[in-house]
Amino acid sequence: MAELYFNDRRVDGRKTTELRTIHCEFLPGLADGSVLLQQGNTKVTASVFGPHPCNVKADEVPDEVCITCQYNRPPFVNTSGSRQKHTHSDKVAAEYAMTIEEVFSALIRGSIYPTAQIDIFIEVLQSDGSEFSTAINAASLALVAAGIEMIGFAVASTVGFYGSRLFADLCRYEENSRVTRVTVACLFGSPDSDANALTGDFAPSLPPAALPQHLFGARLLHTRLSSWLPSEKLISLIRGGVEVAKVIHSELSEKLRRYVKLSERM
Question: Gene3D superfamilies from the entry (predicted)?
Answer without folding.
Answer: GHMP Kinase, N-terminal domain (3.30.230.70)
